[in-house]
Prior knowledge:
The chain has helices spanning 38-45, 62-70, 86-96, 111-117, 137-141, 168-174, 177-188, 193-207, 213-227, 244-255, 257-271, 285-295, 303-306, 331-336, and strands at 52-55, 75-80, 101-105, 126-132, 272-282, 299-302, 314-317, 320-327, 344-350. The chain is 39% helix and 16% strand. Strands 3-2-1-4-5-9-8 form a 7-stranded mixed β-sheet. Strands 6-7 form a two-stranded antiparallel sheet. Helix 2 links the parallel strand 1 (52-55) and strand 2 (75-80). It has 14 helices and 9 strands. It is an alpha/beta fold. Helix 7 (177-188) packs across helix 8 and helix 7 (177-188) packs across helix 10. It folds into 2 domains: 19-138 and 257-350, Vaccinia Virus protein VP39 (Rossmann fold); 146-255, Orthogonal Bundle (DNA polymerase, domain 1), CATH 1.10.150.170.
Amino acid sequence: MRIQKYLGRLWVVGNRKLCTVAETQKPEHSVPHIPVLSSEVVNLFQPAPSKTYIDMTFGAGGHSRALLNACPEISIIALDRDKSALAYGEQLQLDYGRDRVRLLHGSFTDIVEILRGQGHSTANIADGILFDVGASSMQYSNRDRGFSVTNNGPLDMRMNRDEETPTAADVVNKLEEKDLYKILKKYGEEKLSRQIARLVVEYRQMMGPITTTKDLREVVSEVYRAAEATRKVDKAGRKQHAATLTFQALRIFVNDELNQLYNGLKIAHLLLKPNGICAVISFHSLEHNVTHQVFNTKHAIDKQTLVTPNLHQTAFLYPWKCDSSVIKPSEEEVTQNPRSRSAELRVAFKKSVQR
């Protein structure tokens, strides 16, 4: 595998290969994922009989279950690129019926091809679409996945381990110092990215490959100790681990998360019915910025295709009507679920294209 070819993720929005609906596996960890801003999502979507909602980040199904609890007569299309998450979907199918819950395995950019491959239409099919981006609690809790700074395990970080894509270990052991620096700077906004990249290269030359989360954690911590740098404080007033931003950067790069989000939001516009709701729960500034960019940017739209065959011109329109407010979790929710402390919910409605 030539990992250098994946560096294009840093600068361009790319297409990903088609994934098929996969057979489910047993959940890899027994700890459930607590859905963030669940009641706010239900209030926004206002589930009603015969409506269809797409959960683009199914996870353990907490948001989908909340919508079904509010109105069992809705339909859910549940997508997740992590095959282990689909086992939670099987339980949801048992509780509400397979005709109410459809499970899909793939990334955001796969969903159109998956639906078409199953003989379903893809345009204007959903009343609401939800993105709860980033890694899930199950992924962080399972040390074998390599997402957690605190749990020692193999340095993997792939959300879809069926794909022939680089692991985080591949990235830190095979890329040059300048490329590691770009990843840490761009995706981690890490102030010591240059020093960390340099020490990673020195470590692997002297000590051998960095293969575990513990190895990487210790390298980054050494950089902070040597620089006598102050660690960031999160919204709960707690000091972040020195390696938190490095782990974030590698995870985003390995899973192509920002390009996936950007393309996924474009696809959501296709899938939504006119006036349908798109809700995005994001957790850091990079995700916030991508969401804001897509929701607030004009796009070239061919009016001949969307309006009338007699009108041959391109219009630059805002395809989304945005709610400018940002919804954040209550103090009570943050106390009950600390993971929610940095969550922000942004909402936009699909506009109807008119003459």
